[in-house]
Amino acid sequence: MRKLAIFNNISLDGYFTDASNSMAWAKMDNDAEFNDFTTQNAQGGGVLLFGRVTYDMMAAFWPTPAASLKMPEVAERMNNGPKVVFSRRMEKAEWHNTTLVRDDLVGAVRRMKQEDGPGMVILGSGSIAAQLAAENLIDEYQVVVNPIALGAGRTMFDGLPQPMTMRCTMSRTFRNGKTFLSYQPVA
């Protein structure tokens, strides 16, 4: 059975988007240690899963020369790796190597988890994360806590119908003040 993880940046007060629905505050910085971590993490392979909003944001940046210049290995992975976007409104997914799934998010992910192949990772995509978390389909939650308080925004778990208990399996603090945490749900 394939594993499904989520990787998200969050603020110190727990938001993954600010009150304007922006994630610009979590942008990459010039910290070599953290950028090396990001590059290593991107080399993990697997299928990238997105909601439409995150997909649009990623598809607008990663195929650009600026992305290739700033983080060439990550750009290579983002542009050429297999991707799935979940959207009821999109007509066609233009970004290279992307499959569009227009309905039954939960059923589609259940089927993908049963297939052979590499793991899957959700990037951003808070509404998808909350729906899949409610169905116990996410095996690992990876978050980077950024040293910023936003005061308002959306959490990854908006709409979660009941509390989820998790256990921390890994943590790492970087010189730039960011902290990586990995959690697994407790059954």
Largest sheet strand order = 5-4-3-6-1-7-10-9
Mean pLDDT: 91
Question: Radius of gyration from the CA trace?
Answer: 16 Å
Shape: globular
CATH superfamily: Dihydrofolate Reductase, subunit A
Overall structural class, as computed from helix and strand content, comes to alpha/beta
Question: Describe it for me?
Answer:
The radius of gyration is 16 Å and the shape is globular. It has one domain: 3-Layer(aba) Sandwich (Dihydrofolate Reductase, subunit A). It has 187 residues and is an alpha/beta fold. The model has no long low-confidence stretch (mean pLDDT 91). Strands 5-4-3-6-1-7-10-9 form an 8-stranded mixed beta sheet. A two-stranded antiparallel sheet has the order 2-8. The protein is built from 6 helices and 10 strands, in the order ββαβαααββαβαββββ.
